[in-house]
Design a protein that fits this description.
The chain starts with a helix and ends with a helix. With 85 residues, it is an all-alpha fold. It has helices at 2-15, 19-39, 45-68, 72-84.
Length: 85
């Protein structure tokens, strides 16, 4: 299952001390758990992919907003998170 793979990736990122990947994957798992609570059912891979797409879109739009505001470092961070997802 996709969620199991994400948890394994999170564990590996923690072992390699990749802080950006750890925070991004934790945020994603949190979003999945929130979605699970909202729907009241176990989530399948199809729904997890939908959540990933939503989060990537949110990051891309955030990067554009930061760029237009002159905050290049935050735009780069948002794009890095989108790449991880």
């Amino acid at each position: 299952m996709l969620i199991d793979q994400i948890q394994a990736d999170l564990k590996q990122a923690m072992l390699t001390k990749n802080e950006l990947k750890v925070s991004t994957l934790r945020m994603f798992l949190s979003e999945l758990k929130n979605a699970q609570i909202a729907t009241g059912a176990d989530l399948d891979d199809k729904y997890a992919i939908t959540v990933v797409q939503k989060e990537v879109k949110r990051r891309r739009e955030g990067a554009e907003g930061f760029r237009s505001g002159g905050r290049e470092e935050l735009a780069v961070k948002e794009e890095s998170e989108a790449d991880i997802l």
